[in-house]
Amino acid sequence: AKSTGEGKLAGVDFISRFFGPSAGIDEDPVTGSAHCGLAPFWSSRLGRPELVAFQLSTRGGRVVTRLEGDRVVLAGQGLVVIEGMFAVPDAA
Q1: How many Cβ atoms sit within 10 Å of the Cβ of residue 49?
Q2: Alpha helices by DSSP H, 1-92
Q3: The pLDDT of residue 31
């Protein structure tokens, strides 16, 4: 879908949503990993390596995607939802 409207969807090349109820995720607000698969799909159809996506969840979020060879580069604003530390045991 191509949106040329006003507001948060202005200039958006495609819109996405992500649901994972079996993993306890009713709806993920903005899913970077999903856009790594969506970017090549939409880039091939729209004929451009850089696209703007919007994940249309309650919180919502804009993700800029760019194909670089076999990689997808994502850009946007982040939100820290949890912080912590973990220890990796020494290899025996």
Answers
A1: 15
A2: 32-46
A3: 84
